[in-house]
Amino acid sequence: QVQLVESGGGLVQAGGSLRLSCAASGIIASLQPMAWYRQAPGKQRELVGRIISGITSYADSVKGRFTISRDNAKNTVYLQMNSLKPEDTGVYYCNALNNGRLYWGQGTQVTVSS
Question: Considering only CA atoms, which of 35, 31, 34, 89 is closest in space to residue 59?
Fold first, then answer.
């Protein structure tokens, strides 16, 4: 059974940093395409960034501020978020593609105050 569990969200002032974690079970995170998405109140879920075969890519809105990495020993993918802005506020989700099926975590709330 595939499970993704996000953690690390919280309240932070603008300019601050947070590191989100996505702990995977039932899959080998290093072998699967994984991604981070976010959803702000009243808005559609949007892609933040991906890691596929070790190669990362990011939405223009977070490029240069956010970094995706992984710890293979912990089967965990991270989202390091620096220079946070109020518009980064939202629920952050990770997903993983495994055998043609997309799995999602439950999300973690990030709130950036101005």
Answer: 35
Alpha helices in 44-114 (DSSP H): none
What is d(CA 62, CA 113) in angstroms, rounded to the nearest whole number? 17
- With beta carbons less than 8 A apart as the criterion, state whether 51 and 34 touch: yes
pLDDT tens-digit readout, 25-76: 988 888 899 999 999 999 999 999 999 999 999 999 999 999 999 999 999 9
Residues near 63 by beta carbon (within 8 Å), at least 6 away in sequence: none
Who contacts 35 (Cβ-Cβ below 8 Å, separation ≥6)? 47, 48, 49, 50, 51, 94, 95, 96
Write the burial class of residue 104 (CB in 10 Å: 0-12 exposed, 13-18 middle, 19+ buried): middle
Q: What is the mean pLDDT of residues 4-10?
A: 98
Beta strands of 1-114 (E only): which ranges? 3-7, 10-13, 18-25, 34-39, 46-52, 55-58, 66-71, 76-81, 90-98, 101-104, 108-113
